[in-house]
Specification:
single chain; 205 residues; mainly beta; Immunoglobulin-like; 5-stranded antiparallel β-sheet; 4-stranded antiparallel β-sheet; 43% strand; cilium biogenesis/degradation; C2_B9-type_dom; cell projection; cytoskeleton; cytoplasm
Length: 205
């Protein structure tokens, strides 16, 4: 029974790093990451979440550099619910309080090989002016209780957000047994997986 079960599973190995970020208005930032994936997916090795060191801009560059490694392997029985990487960036405000500076998410690349992703970041905005002022005064910015919500479409449209900053991530993707199970992950077929993932995004946990 175990052999039959293993024969219906493929593997997705995610290596790479959260290279850095560009936040023109902020400095001394760190990044948290986690994965969101469908019910048929499960991590087998590596870390599902992590946190980088605090980094500062150099005098020669306005970019923030983390070079924080990513190493995770997933198993699944079908590509629906393909994993997404969710990143959230934090840093001090003028009062020294730790506040969120941006949320973002991207699907893990569908095809094997080297990939670079630049993730646009955003923050939730207060819905009225007094709330914005008191939030600034008390050092409390609106933020999500669970950053994984940014990977889901449901309910996001009722949240007022503001774009700010970008995070750059490099990936080295490897797959095993996908072709044997009938999934050809060539460049011409990645859109098929994207469509299947989008249509069943409700499967993501």
């Amino acid at each position: 029974m175990e052999t039959a079960s293993n024969s219906s599973v493929f593997l997705l190995t995610v290596n790479g790093q959260i290279e850095g970020a560009n936040f023109p208005d902020y400095d001394h930032l760190y990044c948290k990451y986690c994965y969101v994936y469908g019910h048929d997916w499960a991590p087998t090795t590596g870390l599902e979440e992590g946190i980088t060191q605090i980094t500062s801009k150099s005098s020669q560059s306005h970019k923030l550099i983390w070079n924080f490694p990513l190493e995770t392997t997933f198993k699944s029985t079908n590509p629906s619910g393909w994993p997404q990487l969710v990143v959230s960036v934090y840093g001090p405000d003028v009062f020294g309080n730790d506040v969120v500076r941006g949320y973002g998410a991207t699907h893990i690349p569908f095809t094997p090989g080297q990939h670079i992703r630049t993730i646009p970041m955003f923050v939730p905005e207060p819905t009225w002016r007094l709330q914005k002022f008191t939030g600034w005064l008390l050092g409390r910015r609106p933020e999500y209780t669970d950053p994984k919500v940014v990977a889901h479409g449901e309910g996001r449209e009722v949240t007022r957000v503001r774009s700010q900053g970008f995070v750059t991530v490099s990936f080295h993707i490897m797959t095993k047994d996908m072709k044997r199970m009938g999934y050809d992950m060539g460049p011409m077929n990645s859109s098929t997986v994207q469509s299947a993932t989008s249509s069943q995004s409700g499967d993501a946990q």
